Predict the 3D structure of the following.
Amino acid sequence: MRFIKKIDSYLLKHFLGLLAMTFMICIFILLMQFVWMHVKDLVGKGVEVMVLAEFFIYAVATVVPLALPLAILLASLMTFGNLGEKSELTAMKAAGVSLFRIMRPLTISLFLICGGAFLFSNYVLPVSQVKLWALIFSLRQKSPELDIPQGEFYDGIDGYNIYVRLKDPLKGMLYDMMIYDYSEGFQNATVMVADSGRIYFTDDKKYLLLRLYSGESFENLDRKQKRATKSEKNIPYRRESFAMKQLLIDFDMEFNRYNEDVLSDQHVSKNVTELVQSIDSVQVLAHDRSAEQSASIVENRYFGRERKSGRNLQEDAVGAPSNKVYDLDSLLANLSPDERYRVASAALEKAKAQRDQIDYNALMLNDYQRYIRRHEIELYRKFTLAFACLVFFFIGAPLGAITRKGGLGMPVVISVVMFIVYYIIDNTGYKMAREALWPCWAGMWLSSFVLLPIGIFLTYKAATDSTLLNPDAWIKLLVKLKRFIYKIWIQLRKLLKTSEKVNS
């Protein structure tokens, strides 16, 4: 019993250490990918270090759902691969410890990790998602850091193009400047040239003050011809010389936070309880809206009258009880051509109005259904993350026991291949659910349904000491197959020689 406890502690220490290492590696790789996707929102904005640190913290929380299953797969592969490579797994089995008993402490720890993954996706991830996207929207709205280059046009200011031939950083002077102002439209543009100039920010950092010295401005008058005098009508632009000229340009350099309350009703910002409540409320609203619209169409559009209080639909439709049957063809035949045309036109217009109303109602109901699907997808996603961690463990552990290859070579290759397969299947199911081609539960659980039988099969093969993925076993099998084919070939040659002798 004491021996078993030592094995348990040894396996837990080995597995959890590898899990921490692989988890950090996966976090780093996925974080770099995420940062690369949003690099244009970060570069050149001149934000503070604390804002960047906040961005990275929220980004780390966002990539955890992808990093954790991959880390568990890689850690379980390396753990059992190292045990098999060092013959420790063989020694444990020789001592009477089965593979399921060896996996038991790790399985218990995996259940705890899965529970933590669910709590993380339910409580931590929604908050981090809201804060991350609010921060990204804030970064996108922030003006870029002003850094006018030397010898080329700068278009970092909306509505302006600025050219500076020479800069003097010590004096803060800009020489041989050209400013192209198209803030009021290209047809009403203004071009300014100056020998020198300075650029300042106002105290509130919301405006840019451009001070120009010894220059000229040229203003296009194409859109101002109506206000021009007769003597000015043939002049395409207005020219002005100045000794000093100041321009005040909107250029907010402050970092303004995006309002997080705007994202509070999004599906990514809700936990399981909030998602279920939102789904139920919208389903009830969609049902009531559909019933209301159907009744409105039938009562008001089809029968052409409002429903009267105290009377039912049949009474409104047919009025007083009558067994008389109307022949519509004969009624139309008794009308004049103009009257038949007016009747047909009125019926056609009424049918078109009916169709437009139905199309509008369908669009409204589709919006409700899209809202419900997004919330259902997010609801199932919180459970699939925890379950994926368990499935990947029962794929990685038996694969490591079968291959008996430790280190980072073979386990990394197998992990990457398996994770790519998982990612493709998971994205396929997600798109099917999002486009309403499949039920949401089927699309979100598709990857688990596919990989779970593989995990069960591999666990069974590893428990029965299968040589499914043992390279040496495959080499021996190929050698035997080669010998068998060679024997068949020899027998065929003997039969051919015998038949030739008989024929001769």
About this structure: Strands lie at 153-154, 160-168, 173-181, 190-201, 207-220, 237-250. Residues 337-403 form the longest helix (67 residues). DSSP finds 13 helices and six strands in the chain. Residues 223-232, 305-321 have pLDDT under 50 and may be disordered.
